[in-house]
Specification:
Blueprint lengths: L22 H12 L3 E5 L6 H8 L2 H6 L7 E7 L8 H15 L6 H10 L5 H13 L3 E7 L13 H17 L6 E7 L3 H4 L14 E5 L5 H7 L7 H11 L3 H16 L6 H22 L2 H15 L14 H6 L1 H9 L3 E6 L2 E6 L2 H12 L3 H14 L2 H16 L12 H7 L1
Parallel strand pairs: 1-4, 1-5, 2-3, 3-4
Antiparallel strand pairs: 6-7
Helix pairs in contact: 4-5, 4-6, 5-6, 10-11, 10-19, 11-12, 12-16, 12-19, 13-16, 17-18
The structure holds adenosine-5'-triphosphate and magnesium ion.
The site of magnesium ion (MG) has 3 residues, from helix 2.
Length: 424
């Protein structure tokens, strides 16, 4: 064991040969490619968007799905790379990528060269290229990662420009004749309709041509396959799942830490493991928090607070019946559930919400501890939309108590129950 190389992937998209699970989504993506149709995939930080698009660039995967890759020009672009985002730069980059992928194509190369000589690239140039691809019985698979970067407007790219750009993409993929030679697969952190420009009767329905699929947290089988690479007892795997939830990036990080600790033959405690884990992954929790809107953040705080009783000895607070609030905010809770932040279980015929990762829960409590009077004031409006005045007082009382008594929740051990037991 001491000299083995680390089998976990951290810091880069997972290689196709180490890619785990997602069978159904792979089949759906190839259905869309086969039909020259479009797909929008959304998933939170580290859920595997880039890895999934990267998988679709593998010719072996195409062959295993029974589709001939030799006719396809597969282009991957992360939209965040175009900084600041400008449509002309975007079209140009795509045309350049097509040029690189079609070096042996003596028909296409001169056409592309000529188009690139123009001062500004447009969607029309790409449409023109698609036409020639089609004539040669080829087609383009456009894999656009972090597509949401295209709807962040700035001083040189106004809200109207965003709408124009998005409707150009729709036009290309849905209305133009050349759509028959194009399949667009895009990823984003949130579902496109939640993040991009809202639809109104006057606006082009810019996302209606996509099939929507979500990258969900790994299920039990997927977690099991990921840990097949190392010797692991089911108790330890459960402990890791408790802190990492089903998030692939968090699971891979936990696997890596375990592997490193074993290799260096360190004695490990649950607490040390959890601290290393937080050091390696804190940004995921922070991103998850920041990607949530005020209402979602408040719901997360309430869920964390409602669980706190079992974690701190000194129960000096009473939240009142916050289950009533949860029952009124079903939609937001389902959304958080789908994004892999929380899960719902039934306990004694009652619905109970839990954090997918206990470290996320710990992180939210830390956030509450840092809520000073001013921040409480900022949140008050959201609180009042959710609960009665009396309840707001109860909840803000608890928040004040926690921020004044931070030592109550200091030890991370309380959040890593199963791990702590395993390493004890
Ligand atoms: N299907 C998978 N099989 C194995 N590991 C995976 C899989 N998907 C993702 N991972 C792991 O999760 C990590 C993060 O994946 P990836 O970068 O693809 O996620 P992402 O959704 O693009 O994240 P971000 O929001 O940061 O862009 C990878 O380093 C990889 O280790
Ligand atoms: Mg990514």
């Amino acid at each position: 064991m001491a000299s083995t190389r680390n089998p976990f992937t951290v810091g880069q998209p997972v290689a196709p040969e180490s890619f785990v699970g997602r069978k159904n989504l792979i089949a759906i993506a190839f259905d869309q490619i086969y039909n020259r149709s479009n797909l929008a995939i959304w998933g939170g930080p580290g859920m595997g968007k880039t890895s999934f698009l990267n998988l679709l660039t593998s010719h072996q995967v195409w062959q295993s799905e029974d589709i001939d890759p030799s006719r396809a020009v597969i282009v991957y672009l992360n939209c965040l790379e175009i900084k600041p985002f400008m449509p002309a730069k975007f079209w140009r980059r795509i045309i350049n990528l097509i040029r690189e992928k079609t070096k042996d194509d003596s028909v296409l190369q001169p056409i592309i060269q000529k188009l690139l000589k123009k001062p500004e690239s447009t969607k029309e140039h790409l449409r023109y290229i698609l036409k020639f691809l089609g004539q040669q019985n080829k087609f383009l698979v456009l894999l656009l990662d972090d597509y949401n970067a295209t709807f962040r407007y700035h001083s040189q790219y106004t809200e109207t420009d965003v709408e124009t750009f998005l409707s150009e993409c729709r036009n290309l993929a849905y209305h133009s004749l050349e759509r028959r030679y194009l399949s667009m697969i895009v990823t984003s952190l949130r579902r496109l309709n939640e993040d991009g420009p809202r639809l109104t009767p006057e606006k082009s329905p810019w996302y209606n041509h996509y099939a929507f699929q979500q990258l969900k947290p790994f299920n039990q089988n997927e977690v099991d396959s990921l840990f097949e690479k190392i010797e692991i007892t089911s108790e330890l795997r459960e402990g890791i799942e408790e802190i990492a939830g089903g998030n692939p990036a968090l699971l891979q990080n936990a696997g890596l830490i375990l592997h490193n600790k074993r290799r260096s033959e360190e004695t490990i405690s649950g607490e040390a493991f959890a601290r290393d884990f937080v050091d390696a992954t804190e940004h995921f929790f922070q991103d998850t928090w920041q990607l949530s809107n005020q209402l979602e953040q408040t719901l997360l705080m309430l869920i964390a607070l409602s669980k706190l009783a079992g974690r701190v000895e000194n129960k000096r607070y009473d939240l009142g019946d916050i289950n009533i609030i949860f029952s009124q905010k079903e939609r937001e809770l389902i959304d958080l559930e789908q994004r892999g932040v929380i899960k719902r279980i039934t306990e004694q015929e009652k619905t109970v919400y839990l954090f997918y990762s206990t470290i996320m829960e710990w992180w939210v409590i830390k956030e509450i501890e840092n809520t000073n009077a001013e921040k409480i004031k900022q949140r008050e409006k959201v609180f009042l939309n959710l609960m009665s005045h009396e309840q707001v007082e109860q909840v803000t009382g608890v928040i004040k108590y926690l921020s004044e008594n931070q030592e109550t929740v200091k030890s991370i051990v309380k959040w890593v129950g199963k791990l702590a037991m395993y390493f004890a």
